[in-house]
Design goal:
The structure is a single chain. With about 160 residues, the protein is mostly helical. It contains seven helices and no strands. About 10% of the residues are buried.
């Protein structure tokens, strides 16, 4: 069942809006909480993720991220098109030319910075997520066995 919230419920306090602004920059709830509330890491680590998931804050974060992507004209198509172009360029066998247009005999292309930029843009759009799923055999639940051996206090020396 999907919950509906009133506009009044989704309105943010100044601190919550500041949290949204900081989160859209860092994409780190703990760091954003620490900057806004000037608290310890421990408090921010517990409270930041919880605040990020509150309905009004979560909606504001999604809206801010969408607006940012629109302003930059970056979407999943842009990421995939540039990624494909970069891969194709890396696979080219075009010679490097000097200032006079003569071949230097080298075939180089530094793909690292380009791919990192595309990776970051894709992560910003939520395209690349690091997810770890722990399962047991055949995708079932993880089974834990704990064995205890309680010694007789007389045996401990």
């Amino acid at each position: 069942m999907e919950e509906e919230y009133t506009d009044a419920y989704l309105e943010l306090s100044d601190n919550h809006q500041a949290f949204v602004d900081e989160y859209t920059i860092s994409r780190n709830a703990t760091e954003a909480y620490q900057k806004v509330y000037d608290c310890s890491y421990e408090v921010a680590n517990a409270s930041g993720p919880r605040l990020k998931n509150q309905p009004g804050v979560a909606v504001a974060i999604l809206e801010a991220m969408e607006a940012s992507a629109k302003r930059c004209h970056i979407d999943q198509d842009w990421v995939l098109t540039n990624l494909k172009e970069g891969v194709e360029r890396c696979m080219q066998h075009s010679p490097v030319l000097d200032k006079e247009g003569k071949e230097t005999g080298e075939y180089t292309f530094q793909a690292g910075p380009m791919f990192k930029g595309i990776e970051l843009a894709g992560k910003n759009l939520g395209m690349f997520k690091d997810t770890v799923v722990n399962t047991g055999p055949n995708g079932g639940p993880v089974q834990h066995t704990v064995n205890y051996h309680i010694k007789d206090p007389k045996e401990i020396k």
